[in-house]
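From the methods appendix. Each design record in this collection lists the tokenized structure first, followed by the designed amino acid sequence. Records were kept in a plain field format so they could be parsed without special tools. The example shown here is representative of the layout used throughout.

RECORD:
FOLD TOKENS (593 positions):
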């Protein structure tokens, strides 16, 4: 069977210099060229270290001086930028010479979408693999054992059967765990989501290769995929949202009632069990191993490998000197000593000359002999249709947008715009990311928001189908003006409780709250009491889980406070301290639905 690998979502931007000092990308000192490398989050730390070693090596000076600089960008976001020609360098970063998504699948997606727009291909058909890691289903060890792990093979069909059982985990002797809950990322951003969803289609058809467009349109195949999506607690732009939330719940003893399973890469299971769920070690950080470790389930229907390719792009901004520097760095990271560093961090080496060993072992909940079945890469048209079809098959959303219209939102945000003007446009643009039957409403808050009504928040558009009220939402957002103070705690608590009181079990129920300030309401200034109330409504076996996603907008907002609020509901806080980033941040937030 042909072995196919899916690469880890990342973008590598490289520029190298030739001996005459010609530069592509960001220049160093007029003699060396900066090799821009944008990486997916899970390998940023490793590639930053390897880049520093390369920059000090003879390889960096051979054939023209080159210096590598590492940044990060998700595979899906990079793919979108490349489809559009990577024009907006302010939003997307420097134009890449090397692109390294998590999976080679993304290369086909980019070229297919560019072909549909009559644009030339940018991604070469072949590339070297830097390292590999298979897609697995991560589960807390006791839950996996309840399903027969490690002796019994487990797959998507088994999880779907459990998810559809009205008794949930009680059918496996554990009523205390509640229903089966799946965590999954958004296909527009995440390699794990693209791989897992493609694997779902394979599981539904019984195939392991040659998935076709006709397969995707079969009613029973669509029904299988939609049933899997219906078990999702919420989506996200990266798996780190789920892993970090899992880890916080583990500290409180509630990890078994947060989510039951998340599709992640094998390497993430190692990081989690080492006490480092985001895979990045901060200075002075002392990892704490979880009380309940995760184990990796290799789906019996088959899975993909993330192969982390180095695509040297066929783009107009890539010259011969840049191409030379890119290849030298690609060769450097595949050297045996560097591949052993790859293994130590939890990836499988891309260079077959380096043998597999620790930490890919049973001590970390892994099986180095797995996966036994690898799935064949579908054609580019099939991959594009999977992404497009998922937008309609995914679980529906019920979301209340809550926007701060306090006086400080009228402050200058640069480029002649106020903070509110930028936020309004970003919110309007974000509405396009909802599907027509998603339920969306709009609430504003500021002191005396309702004039004669004493409340400090006001519903401008009730929660309802966005398809029927998109124009009303846009019109209301455009009409917002800055007013008075910031009654943050009162508004957050009321919004959360109201969405919870009218909970829809068939949808992802959430509040998205944007604020540029800190609570200035003397009638309600008890943050601890607010966090306790939010947590009480979210922990354990709550049958009405509502998540509060927060956006810290501008330098006046307290990201720490908003993180406490969001994490109390097993959601996430987003940093838009630079107002110019608000459009990208809104896109990240809406990726949860």
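DESIGN:
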């Amino acid at each position: 069977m042909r072995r196919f690998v899916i690469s880890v979502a990342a973008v590598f931007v490289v520029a190298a210099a030739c001996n005459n000092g010609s530069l592509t990308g960001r220049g160093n000192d007029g003699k060396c060229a900066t090799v821009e490398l944008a990486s997916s989050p899970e390998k940023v730390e490793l590639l930053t270290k390897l880049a520093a070693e390369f920059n000090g090596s003879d390889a960096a000076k051979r054939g023209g001086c080159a210096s590598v600089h590492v940044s990060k960008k998700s595979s899906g976001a990079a793919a979108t930028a490349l489809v559009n020609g990577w024009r907006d360098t302010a939003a997307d970063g420097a134009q890449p010479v090397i692109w390294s998504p998590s999976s080679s699948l993304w290369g086909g997606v980019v070229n297919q979408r560019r072909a549909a727009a009559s644009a030339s291909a940018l991604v070469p058909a072949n590339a070297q693999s830097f390292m590999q890691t298979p897609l697995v289903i991560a589960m807390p060890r006791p839950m996996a054992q309840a399903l027969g792990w490690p002796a019994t093979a487990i797959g998507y069909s088994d999880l779907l059967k459990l998810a559809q059982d009205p008794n949930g985990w009680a059918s496996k002797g554990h009523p205390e765990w509640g229903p089966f809950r799946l965590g999954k990322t958004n296909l527009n951003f995440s390699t794990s989501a693209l791989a897992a969803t493609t694997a779902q289609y394979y599981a539904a058809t019984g195939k392991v290769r040659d998935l076709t467009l006709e397969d995707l349109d079969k009613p029973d195949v669509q029904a299988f995929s939609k049933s899997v999506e219906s078990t999702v607690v919420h989506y996200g732009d990266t798996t780190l949202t789920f892993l970090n939330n899992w880890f916080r719940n583990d500290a409180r003893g509630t990890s078994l009632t947060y989510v039951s399973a998340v599709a992640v890469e094998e390497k993430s299971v190692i990081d989690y069990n080492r006490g480092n769920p985001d895979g990045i070690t901060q200075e002075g950080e002392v990892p704490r191993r979880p009380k309940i470790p995760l184990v990796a389930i290799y789906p019996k229907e088959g899975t993909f490998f993330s192969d982390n390719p180095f695509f040297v792009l066929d783009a107009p901004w890539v010259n011969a000197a840049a191409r030379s520097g890119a290849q030298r760095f690609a060769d450097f990271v595949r050297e045996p000593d560097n591949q052993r560093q790859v293994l130590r961090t939890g990836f499988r080496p891309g260079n077959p000359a380096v043998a597999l060993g620790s930490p890919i072992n049973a001590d970390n909940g892994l099986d180095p002999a797995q996966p036994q079945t690898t799935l064949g890469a579908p054609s580019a048209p099939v991959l594009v249709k999977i992404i497009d079809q998922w937008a309609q098959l995914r679980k529906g959303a019920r979301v209340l947008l809550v926007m701060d219209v306090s006086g400080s939102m009228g402050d200058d945000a640069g480029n002649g715009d106020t903070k509110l003007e930028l936020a309004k446009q970003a919110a309007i643009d974000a509405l396009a990311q909802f599907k027509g039957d998603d339920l969306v409403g709009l609430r504003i808050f500021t002191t005396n928001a309702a004039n004669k009504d004493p409340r400090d928040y006001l519903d401008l558009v009730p929660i309802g189908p966005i398809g029927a009220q998109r124009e009303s939402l846009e019109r209301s957002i455009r009409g917002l003006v800055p007013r008075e103070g910031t009654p943050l705690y009162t508004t957050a608590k009321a919004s959360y409780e109201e969405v919870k009181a009218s909970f829809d079990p068939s949808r992802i129920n959430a509040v998205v709250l944007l604020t540029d300030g800190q609570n200035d309401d003397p009638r309600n200034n008890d943050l601890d009491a607010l966090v306790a109330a939010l947590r009480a409504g979210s922990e354990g076996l709550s049958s009405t889980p509502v998540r509060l996603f927060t956006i810290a907008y501008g330098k006046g907002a307290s990201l720490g406070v908003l993180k406490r609020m969001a994490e109390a509901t097993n959601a996430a806080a987003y940093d838009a301290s630079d107002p110019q980033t608000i459009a990208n941040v809104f896109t990240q937030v809406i990726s949860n639905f």
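APPENDIX NOTE: The chain has a mean pLDDT of 89.
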